[in-house]
Amino acid sequence: MNGPWLPVLTALPLVGAIVLAFLPKGADRLAKLLALGWSLVVLVLTIVVCANFDPDGDRFQFVTSYTWIPQFGTRLAFGVDGIALVMLALIAVLTPIVLLASWHESGQGRRSVKTYYALMLALQTCMIGVFVATDVFFFYVFFEAMLVPMYFLIGSYGGPKRQYAAVKFFLYSLVGGLFMLASVIALYVVSVRELGEGTFAFDKLAGMDMSTTAGRWIWLGFFVAFAVKAPLFPFHTWLPDAGGQAPIGAAVLLVGVLDKVGTFGFLRYNLPLFPEASRFFAPLVIVLGIIGILYAALLAIGQNDMKRLVSYTSVAHFGFIAIGVFAFTTQGGSGAVLYMVNHGIATGALFLVVGFLIARRGSALIADYGGVGRLVPWIYGAFFVTGMASLALPMTNSFVSEFLVLLGVFSRNPVAGVVATLGIVVAALYVLWMIQRTMHGPTNPKLLEEGSPKWRDLSRREAWVIAPLLVLIIGLGVYPKPLLDVINPAVKATLTDVGQQDPQPSEVAGGNR
Amino acid sequence: MSTAVDVLAADIQAPKLDYAALSPILILLGAACVGILIEAFVPRRARHFVQVVLSLVGLAAAFVAVVLVAQREVITAGGAIVIDGPALFLSGSIIVLGAISVLLMAERSLDAGGSFVAQAAVVAGSPPDRRLASEPTSHTEAFPLAMFALAGMLVFVSSNDLLIMFIGLEVLSLPLYLLCALARRRRLLSQEAAVKYFLLGAFASAFFLYGVALIYGYAGAVDLAAIHDAVNGSAANDALLFIGLAMLLIGLLFKAGVVPFHSWTPDVYQGAPTPVTALMAACTKVAAFGAILRVFYVAFQSTKWDWRPVLIGIAMLTMVVGAVLAVTQTDIKRLLAYSSIANAGFILTGVVALNDRGVSSTLFYLAAYGFTTIGAFAVVMLVRDADGEATHLSRWAGLGRRSPLYAGVMTLFLLAFAGLPLTSGFISKFAVFAAAIDGDAVSLVIVGVIASMVLAFPYLRVIVLMYLSDPAEDGPTVSVPGGFTAAALTIGVLATLALGVVPTQLLDLAGQAAQFVR
């Protein structure tokens, strides 16, 4: 299907943000409704795009491009493959949900409500842009621009330590981004020398010859940026702070989508552009991923703040995604991409439920709860299902992806597969223990004594927020095929770029192209 | 081609002057001279208005002249002045940035009587001096002084001969020394800034002149093309050449505010009236780097293996020192000064690339940076309390709550300094780094990237202060800018955004202008 679908899709939320910014002061309700309506329009448009995507067609579809800065050889080039498409769908689904979830939260204090919603929409433009750009320069622009709205969302609307968290988030990401900038520039210079003209077009760069040394150095620049973003151990320390301090709506987008940009970057840029370097560094990434899985899980057990705990579980999950990507098998790769979507749904839902609890109790500390399940059975139910999805119980969406990743890793490197499996055990521990301490047992007397607001169960708004995600958790757990159909061809194409086939029994890994 | 030697010879002929090609310089000098006459003959009340109009008209006329000359490449005035691509581009930048600075200088609604004191010679702190602070009159001589300085800058970037370059240097420097001393508030600081700038500047000029003398001893000429020939084919003692070049370099790098010749920058930027600081940060930087480009690309290109490593080292040092020291600053003007030092390092990165791309990226960087930095200083002018501008960073806390618009504008400028995409700062950095990698100065780019990371922190600290801190009880107010400052701010914002989103036109222009005529 032709036409400027993707440019329109990218620009639409930004237009909404600008409209919101010009609303008169006080028109909070209008701002909220407008933002929600706008995000639903984006959702509809995304559905149209998804419906017209042909899984067996070209690798990149809806391709359009416009001249931008000819001196740098960069164009406004749009296009989606299967991997980007499922991420687009995730963004489109999550955004209206988090906007609805932020209904009351953003109104607290003296902060402007319309600014909050405008920032959210601006963030959506950047998120969409990152996934639809097929020009490395253009991608980088979105990659960095994304920081600004998120910085203000955390810094202006976050918890008590929001300044610290926002600055840490910004500096970590910017530092990673600047490493990537050096690599992007170097890539450009290499393209000038190899192809005769400087270009940032993905398809031209993907087939380019490059000296081994240059390839490895440039790979490292990209890797650091993505590893900070994802985040991989040892670049992860900003996430618990940012996730713990961000307002719930922003936190969901942060771990649900923003962090996926890192793992998406591995798949889209590191692997196809630098096949040799990717093969060379793969063991390193797998080791980092496994350390992340186990280390973050252990830290998650020790957390007493639910938002921080969920953030740490994300670090562990990103370890899984990274080893899936760098296992260079179709199962591992497809599992990793599916994991990116599923993690966005499951962890996003977990964050939202934690947000419901915080909205009632005014605290994120586990110790401030206890026996809540009896007071709010519906929230308890939602908490339980999302928790189970987070620890990848069969029949939930995460199980399929985690299983595929482990399968893929095991066929390439059995030891890594076995060690990573330990992560599942620890995951069960932190999730179940959190549920036990907050929901089960005798009701914490403090909850009832101080005459605090009555514990209402799920309101209708909250039900609308969480229900779609619960449906997706179970639905994709039972029937993931539609997603896998879209993802598989893109992952296969990526692996062809790396020059790796799925290992046959007894074949040694690491073939040549 | 006639050289300076010929001119010195017995039969002196009047050199042919291409008046059309020289017209931008002549217009500015003319406007400056008329400005002085205005001081003598126009009644005090009308002077400010007349001076502002004259300066702006003069600058506009000079800009038109630059555009008209743009199709030509000439060497004129006995080989002393060259009008080529870089000279025209730099002249145009200086004129436009100078005009925006003049807008800031003309602002009188923020402080009764404007940024300048009425009688600079009164002893600082004495009772008459205190009375001056609230008097609605001011030194309107500032305008002709600025015009002289701008004319000197045009000469500086278009000179084809080291002696003329020296004259340009002096014509641009002397008015700036004076302008620094004219601040209405904090007189002592302002005078200190002027004296420091003058003393160190005089030293730098002396170094420059001594360098010219030694190079003359080596090459037998001060003409850049003749020096180029001499460097290529001379059997003379290289020691003269290198010592001369080093001294010349000291003089030029001083004006550009490059480490280790930077130490005047923070004091002078802090003490000078803010519009003058903006003028120096934007225009002087353009002029100094224009001259550096010309000297190295035209005269000393062929001996690059000797000086390029030195310049690379200096660029690294400048970026790192500027960035690290910026982190510890507590005064916004000093912070911007250190940021300008670090930016000088980034610009040098483009200079040492030593290819066409290096020239064009440096030209682009200078223009783009000028717009942003003038804008930033314009915001500094707006944040005021009873004592004038509130430049201490702690006073900026919570500014975003008090005045979201101006805090937002400042945030845009700071993000541009930090090199975030969709601002001009990103495109500039990208251009110079790409040129440097292309010129095999990868190490420089790595240091540049690290310096950018360090530098992001002070900028971010200001943003945090403005938005995330609670405002102080007795905090400064953000004045509503008068028409002049508003115009300058608008231009700054538009240029910063436009050069970040659609930089094609200016990049194209800079690319076309990248050829020096020898």
Automatic annotation (TrEMBL), chain A:
Location of the NADH:quinone oxidoreductase/Mrp antiporter transmembrane domain: 133-423
Stretches that traverse the bilayer: 6-23, 30-49, 82-103, 115-132, 138-157, 169-190, 217-236, 248-268, 280-302, 309-330, 336-359, 371-395, 415-435, 463-479
Extent of the signal sequence: none
Domain of life, per lineage: Bacteria
Membrane topology: Multi-pass membrane protein
Keyword Transmembrane helix: yes
Cited InterPro entries: NADH_Q_OxRdtase_chainM/4, NADH_UbQ_OxRdtase, ND/Mrp_TM
Key words of the record: Membrane, Transmembrane, Transmembrane helix
Pfam families assigned: Proton_antipo_M
Subcellular localization: Endomembrane system; Membrane
Family that this chain belongs to: Belongs to the complex I subunit 4 family.
Protein known as: NADH-quinone oxidoreductase subunit M
Protein source organism: Cryptosporangium japonicum
Native organism taxonomy: Bacteria, Bacillati, Actinomycetota, Actinomycetes, Cryptosporangiales
Automatic annotation (TrEMBL), chain B:
Segments passing through the bilayer: 20-42, 49-68, 88-106, 140-157, 163-183, 195-219, 239-264, 276-297, 309-328, 335-354, 366-383, 404-422, 442-468, 480-502
Sorted UniProt keywords: Cell membrane, Membrane, NAD, Quinone, Translocase, Transmembrane, Transmembrane helix, Transport
Root EC class: translocase
Residue ranges of domain NADH:quinone oxidoreductase/Mrp antiporter transmembrane in the record: 159-453
Alphabetized InterPro entries for the sequence: NADH-Q_OxRdtase_suN/2, ND/Mrp_TM
A Pfam family matched in the record: Proton_antipo_M
EC number: 7.1.1.-
Membrane-protein topology: Multi-pass membrane protein
Locations listed in the record: Cell membrane; Endomembrane system; Membrane
Reactions accelerated catalytically: a quinone + NADH + 5 H(+)(in) = a quinol + NAD(+) + 4 H(+)(out)
Keyword Repeat part of the UniProt annotation: no
Subunit relationships: NDH-1 is composed of 14 different subunits. Subunits NuoA, H, J, K, L, M, N constitute the membrane sector of the complex.
Chain's role: NDH-1 shuttles electrons from NADH, via FMN and iron-sulfur (Fe-S) centers, to quinones in the respiratory chain. The immediate electron acceptor for the enzyme in this species is believed to be a menaquinone. Couples the redox reaction to proton translocation (for every two electrons transferred, four hydrogen ions are translocated across the cytoplasmic membrane), and thus conserves the redox energy in a proton gradient.
Family: Belongs to the complex I subunit 2 family.
The protein's name in its UniProt record: NADH-quinone oxidoreductase subunit N
